[in-house]
Every structure is written in structure tokens, then in C-alpha cells.
Amino acid sequence: MSSARPAVTATEAPSALEAARAVAPLIRENADEIEKRRELPRAVFEAIADAGLFHVAVPRAVGGSEIDFPTYVQVMEELGKADASTAWAVNQGATFGTFAARMAPDVARAIWIDTPRSVVSNTPAPTAKAIAVPGGYRVSGNQPFSTGCRHASWVASHATIIENGEVQLRSGKPDTRYFLVPVAQAEILDTWHTRGMRGTGTNNFAVKDVFVPEERTVFRGAPVLNGGPRYRIPQTLSFAGGDAAIALGVARSCLEAFYDHAGRNTQRFAKGLLRNETIVQFKVGEAEAALRSGRAFLMEAVRDMWNEASAGNVTIEGRANLRVATTHAIRLAADVVDSVYTLSGAAAIFEGHPIQRYFQDIHVITQHVQGRLNNYEVVGQHCLGLSVEDDTRL
Fold it and tell me: Which residues are CB-neighbours of 176 under 8 A, at least 6 positions away?
């Protein structure tokens, strides 16, 4: 791993958090429009891009800010408080930017920095095929779940390499890579019709016989060529840290919305304001305890992971700890939102009520791989002394 450029220091990092807080009011103002359009309005996207938030995990040697992981997670939490969809789009684009550390600096710079307001939109499964040809590959396929592809400059087609009609292997497994394609050479398919997280614009895209040169390909686990400890953290856990922070941000905003609601509304057959009911007081105290403990555990695990990465030794214990902390934060956030939704009564069932939005959004987040209940299983296996070294969830 290159040590030519040190990681961002603690004194440099807060600027990204300040930038997130500065852009949050604009995001909140446009939350309804973001949901209606099912993508980020151009003005919102440009404000986020100009604040550098899509490049906070791109190496400084390439031109990004390469902030430390604990600060990164706090940035995602702040954005999550403003709007879940927007925060999700930023986390997806920013975390994929860690691949810039695994590409030749001039190529990475051309993609993430030289391209104005550049974002690379990815896709999780290698559903495309890449036919090896002289100098590169010809890539074709329909690729699902590409968050932010409507504002992306590049799409990362995820494909299996085929050469002479045979699937190519790497370390005994199919050689799957990301192939970076200018968005103009892809077709965006309008597939993202959901009840929650609508503004992420997580549509499909299709590529057909697009040539991608070898240097614009990258795979998980490729050697790190630029950057510091940020790139020792497994990418799946980098995504998870951001996703969990977003979930906590959603739950915090949901609680704040309920405090306002409970101070102004009564329910049928009740004698006073909602906030005066004993069950409401109890459940609010319980929700605060759950949310704050989930956040404390997440930040502890994030700091521990950062310390390990900074020391050059990311352990299986650290990975398992971060996995369970991220999953648990998402599940606790969902429990808090569910509790608040139940307490809010019939008022929260209508479109336009903020608690309805939080309820829909959090239940899309729980369906994502980072929030799945079986993530607890792999951590349990580790705690019981079973081998999980090859588990992709860690």
C-alpha cells in the first residue's frame, strides 16, 4: 500500500461535516420534490457536488479529500437527517469512490476529478458479460439497482469476463470486475417505482457492446495504489457504516417530528395533548435510549475500525464488530420509527405527513443487504469460534 500521501488529519476532517450541515437546509427544502421526481433535482445535486461530498472518500493523491472514516459516518448521519434518499445517493457515490485508490492515478483523476461534478453509479451484481478483445473488453448487460444513475457521469457495469468463450477465473473464482462507462454510452431504464427511498433514483441501466479499455476496469480486492488507512477498510463495511448512519439520521428526524406532532395534537378519546399520555412518555424514553445506544455502538465500532486501519491491521474481530454494529443500528432505527408511527395515530397514514415518509424510507433501508437479519448470523458464527474468513459480509 502506498504511503506517499498521508490520511487526512483530524484538524482537516471537520470541513466535510460542516459542508454537510451547510447543504442540509437546501436538501430539506427540496425533500418533497426529490421524492416526486424520484431523483435529485439538479440544483440539489450541484450543491452537494460543489461541496465536495461525493469525493470525500476519493484519495487526496487523485484529487479527493480522503476524510477519516469516523467523520465520514457523521457526514452521512447529517445528510440522513435531512433526507434519506439524498444521503443514500451520496453514500453510494462516495463509497464507490474508494475504488479510485485501486486504479492508476491518471485514470482515476480523469474519471472522478477531471470530469465536472463526477459521480460513478454502480450496480451490485455482475449481471453483465465482458468479452475480452485487444486492449480491453466489450461489455453488454442489463444492470439493476444503480443508485443515482440519473445524475452520474459514469456507470460502473459489473460483469464477468469471458475469453475465447470461457469464463475467466481469478483465485479459482469467476473474474468479475467493474467496467467504467461514460453514462452517455448507457441507457437508463425507468425501473425504480417504490414506496420509500424514491429519490435515490435506483434505476437499472443497460450497456450494449460498449468497449471499455483495460485501465478503466477494477475489481474488489485489487491492490491499493494511492491513499492511506481508509482503503484498508472492506468496502462492504464502508457502505454499511454510511447506511447505518443514514438510518440513525432518519430515526432522529422522525423523533423530532413526533415531538412537534405530540405537542400540537390530540387523539380521539384522549383528554389532552398526545405528549401528556403516559404511554407516549414511556415509549419516547425507550426510543431515545434505543437510538442513542445504537449510535454509541456504531461510532465505537467505526472508531475501532479506523484505529485498526490506521495501524495497518484490520482484524476479523474488528470486521465482525462493525458488521453487527451497523446492522443493529439499522434495526434499532426501524424500531424507533415503528414506535413513533404507532403513537402518531391516523394522522401519520397520509401522504405529505413527515412521519409517513420516514416510515416508508426506513422500511426500504431494512430490506437492503446491510440491514438483513442474517448479518447477525455471521457475527454469531464468529463469536462461537466458527470460521467466517471468506464470508463476503465481512
Answer: 126, 158, 159, 160, 161, 219
pLDDT tens per residue, range 202-240:
999 999 999 999 999 999 999 999 999 999 999 999 999
C-alpha angle 310-109-302 in degrees, rounded to nearest 5: 25
Crossing angle, helix 235-262 and helix 84-96, to 10 degrees?
A: 170
Pairing of strands 120-121, 169-170: unpaired
Q: Could you tell me which of 57, 72, 39 has the C-alpha nearest to residue 148?
A: 39
Give the domain ranges of the chain.
14-114, 120-218, 233-383
In whole angstroms, give the CA distance from residue 336 to residue 349: 17
Query: What does the pLDDT look like over 281-296, one tens digit per residue?
Result: 999 999 999 999 999 9
Per DSSP, the three-state class of 117 is coil
Burial 340-360 (b: 16+ CB within 10 A, else e): bbebbeeebeeeebbbbbbbb
Judged by DSSP in three states, 279 sits in: helix
Q: Give DSSP secondary structure letters for 311-349.
A: HT---HHHHHHHHHHHHHHHHHHHHHHHHHHHHHGGGGG
DSSP 113: I
DSSP 7-27: PPPTTTTHHHHHHHHHHHHHH
C-alpha distances (whole Å) from 239 to each of 44, 160, 207, 276 are 22, 22, 25, 40
Residue pair 142/206 in contact (Cβ under 8 Å)? The answer is yes
Strands (E), 164-266: 166-167, 169-170, 173-174, 176-182, 187-189, 203-213, 217-218
Burial class (CB in 10 A: 0-12, 13-18, 19+), 125: exposed
120-218 against 233-383: fold identical: no
Class of domain 120-218: mainly beta
- What CATH fold (topology level) applies to the domain 233-383? Butyryl-CoA Dehydrogenase, subunit A; domain 3 (1.20.140)
**Sequence-separated (6 or more) residues with CB below 8 Å from residue 258:** 284, 340, 343, 344, 355
Overall pTM surpassing 0.90 (yes/no): yes
- How many Å apart are CA 223 and CA 44, to the nearest integer? 35
Domain 14-114 falls under CATH 1.10.540.10 = yes
When the pLDDT of each residue in the chain is averaged and rounded to a whole number, the result is 94
Distance spanning both ends of the chain, measured CA to CA:
21
